[in-house]
Amino acid sequence: MRRVVFNQKGGVGKSTITCNLAAISASQGLKTLVVDLDPQCNASQYLLSSEGIIAEQTIADYFETILKSRVKKADLADYITATPFENLDLIAAAPDLDDLQVKLEARAKIFKLRDALSKLDYDRIYIDTPPALHFFTRSALIAATRCIIPFDCDDFSRQALYNLLDTVEEIREDHNDDLEIEGIAVNQFQPRAKLPQRLVDELIEEGQPMLNTRLTSSVVVKESHDASVPLIWHSPKHKLTDLFVSLHNELESN
């Protein structure tokens, strides 16, 4: 199963959700891979920095090799880095991903990631995407079988949500029949505030695929980022960790 965490808006917790769901998957004994496609490299730093690991090969190196494919064939397995955590591997990002977009689009390489990931032997693959709709995001949506959309509860995010749903549907119709929206994951939820609850209730009434688990805000997330250790290992008994486990189990039960 290949899951993409997708939202064109920045600051909605894509990398945090990606890494923590993947970590829970790994902690439950599933061989798990995270693919970081964001030039900001947040997921890569989150999963590698606790032990100062530097990825010798990145996803940018893979795409560079693809562009030179007449010289050398690229095997995505060669670009995997082991994290310090059992059952959890990473294909790291690099800042120079931005410079590769135009070249890759011109060479019609949009299906390469899908084909490469399909050859890897993992129980679960999680793909973290940049806050934009461009070559790498489309590649991820084409490569995935499931899509999780993080949502923070404000009206601007709600209006953008409809465009996101349309984008996923367009990708599904044009390029990837297997792509399903697994659900909209509410993040940084404030249960005592009226506006977030009202927005969620209205989206449910509209028939939007809202996931039942609501991820709340907590300083423990920043502490987890600072330690570069996902919550399941950093703070296994914290309430927010329990919510991430609930979200993971909800997704797995669908």
CATH homologous group name: P-loop containing nucleotide triphosphate hydrolases
Order of helices and strands: EHEHHEEHHEHEHEHEHHH
Give the C-alpha Rg: 18 Å
**Main pleated-sheet profile:** 8 strands, mixed
Count of extended strands: 8
Gap between N and C termini, in Å? 12 Å
Helix content: 40-55%
Structure description:
By secondary structure, the protein is an alpha/beta fold. The chain has one domain (2-248): Rossmann fold, CATH 3.40.50.300. The chain is built from eleven helices and eight strands. The chain has helices at residues 14-27, 42-48, 59-67, 97-106, 112-117, 135-143, 155-174, 194-205, 219-227, 231-234, 239-253, and strands at residues 2-5, 32-36, 81-82, 88-91, 124-128, 146-152, 180-189, 210-216. It has an eight-stranded mixed sheet, sandwiched between helices. Strand 7 (180-189), helix 8 (194-205) and strand 8 (210-216) form a beta-alpha-beta unit. The chain is globular, with a radius of gyration of 18 Å. The mean pLDDT is 93.
Provide key terms for this protein.
8 strands, Rossmann fold, 254 residues, alpha/beta
Summarize the structure.
The protein has 254 residues and is of the alpha/beta class. The protein is 45% helix and 17% strand.
